[in-house]
């Protein structure tokens, strides 16, 4: 009887130990210089959910106003599971496929940001954001936009090119130099947010309109050289325009179909989710060469003149390389077309949402200071906007 009881007890204890070994635990990380709660959670793509913030405060016995100490270890609202080698659903004992897809995409994102050393399948370690399984409201379903991969012919004209307007919707095939490469062209702001604004002779000048016009011209150039191009922010009524004064409006949509939210973070997340969803679809189809170009116009003091600035995410080697190449192209163009004018556009890393969160190699561009009279000459004439697009395209083709 005692032997039988002992055997049962040993079996029970072994089961308990196995369960304990496989029990999830919370991820820990060291805070960096300058980190606050929102910055740290944003780095791990956790800041968009209130329950993640509440859990972080609870795990670390903090208040929302408390600072983070550089070098101190903090627990994050990310649960670490032992991956069973079969599927995410069986690992977590869940049935919902969309939840499993989001968790898989999250692990890919974290790997892309160099926040973990290996993927969950090879390492056997699965990261699960707290909000996926514990928030009272389910996480939003990922934006599902099927990639439209168009076959390039001698003359290009299809539903995608109509966005350029009747004068520009017919494209000439110039080369296949960019064949098999994917570009996401995202002009800043749009919809309810015009971005930086100024007035000239009673006319309102809006950042989003000029960034969008350059974005369309760049997208068209890339397509003519065989690239797969996704125009992230679209206005079906504008097209490429040759006026100096571009009328401000608010009818832009994300990927041409999604109404843009009023909240700034929600707008950024909407476009980034769309980009990352497409990025993952292309990766699964074997396409790895993917690049995001974010085009903006700055707003500084009226007296402050600036050249074109190029930003990249601090942890992105490919982003830094692209920014440096682009700066060199612009310096060469200045030397050729503006002899005596030294190009002072700089390359630097920025902790911007559009640099940190997207998964493709990302280049963030500030074309000019919209409030400076001389700077505006770079974006008001349509010929200059086309020149900017041409130079950007040349940099992307190197």
UniProtKB/TrEMBL annotation:
Q: Which reaction does it catalyse?
A: Hydrolyzes the link between N-acetylmuramoyl residues and L-amino acid residues in certain cell-wall glycopeptides
**MF annotations from Gene Ontology:** N-acetylmuramoyl-L-alanine amidase activity
One Pfam family name is Amidase_3
Q: Nucleotidyltransferase among the record's keywords? A: no
Supply the InterPro entries for this chain.
Answer: MurNAc-LAA_cat (IPR002508), N-acetylmuramoyl_amidase_3 (IPR050695)
Record keywords, A-Z: Hydrolase
Membrane spanning segments where? none
Enumerate the SUPFAM superfamilies for this protein. Zn-dependent exopeptidases (SSF53187)
Task: Report what the protein is called.
Answer: N-acetylmuramoyl-L-alanine amidase
Species per Swiss-Prot/TrEMBL record = Candidatus Opimibacter skivensis
């Amino acid at each position: 009887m005692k032997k039988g009881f002992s055997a049962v007890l040993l079996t029970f204890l072994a089961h308990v130990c196995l369960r304990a070994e496989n029990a999830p635990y919370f991820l820990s990380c060291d805070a960096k210089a300058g980190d606050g709660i929102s910055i740290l959670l944003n780095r791990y793509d956790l800041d968009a959910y209130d329950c993640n913030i509440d859990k972080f405060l609870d795990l670390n016995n903090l208040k929302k106003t408390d600072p983070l100490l550089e070098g101190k270890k903090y627990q994050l609202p990310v649960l670490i599971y032992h991956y069973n080698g079969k599927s995410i659903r069986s690992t977590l004992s869940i049935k919902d496929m969309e939840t499993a897809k989001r968790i898989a995409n999250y692990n890919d994102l974290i790997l892309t940001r160099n926040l973990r050393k290996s993927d969950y399948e090879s390492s056997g370690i699965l990261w699960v954001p707290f909000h996926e399984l514990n928030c009272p409201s389910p996480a939003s379903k990922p934006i599902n936009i099927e990639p439209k991969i168009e076959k390039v012919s001698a003359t290009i004209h299809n539903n995608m090119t109509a966005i350029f307007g009747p004068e520009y919707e017919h494209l000439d095939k110039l080369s296949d130099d960019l064949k098999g490469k994917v570009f996401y062209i995202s002009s800043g702001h749009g919809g309810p947010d015009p971005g930086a604004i100024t007035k000239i002779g009673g006319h309102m000048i809006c950042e989003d309109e000029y960034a969008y016009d350059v974005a369309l011209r760049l997208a068209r150039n890339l397509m003519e050289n065989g690239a797969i191009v996704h125009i992230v922010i679209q206005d079906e009524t504008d097209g490429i325009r040759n006026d100096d004064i571009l009328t401000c409006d608010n009818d832009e949509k994300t990927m041409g179909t999604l109404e843009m939210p009023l909240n700034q973070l929600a707008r950024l997340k909407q476009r980034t989710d769309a980009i990352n969803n497409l990025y993952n679809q292309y990766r699964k189809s074997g396409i790895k060469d993917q690049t995001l170009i974010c085009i903006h116009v700055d707003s500084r003091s009226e007296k402050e003149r600036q050249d074109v600035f190029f930003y990249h995410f601090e942890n992105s080697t490919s982003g830094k390389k692209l920014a440096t190449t682009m700066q060199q192209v612009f310096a060469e163009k200045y030397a050729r077309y503006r002899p005596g004018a030294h190009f002072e556009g700089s390359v630097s890393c920025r902790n911007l949402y559009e640099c940190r969160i997207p998964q493709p190699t990302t280049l963030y561009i500030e074309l000019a200071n919209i409030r400076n009279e001389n700077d505006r000459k770079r974006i008001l004439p349509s010929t200059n906007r086309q020149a900017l697009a041409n130079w950007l395209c040349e940099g992307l083709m190197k």
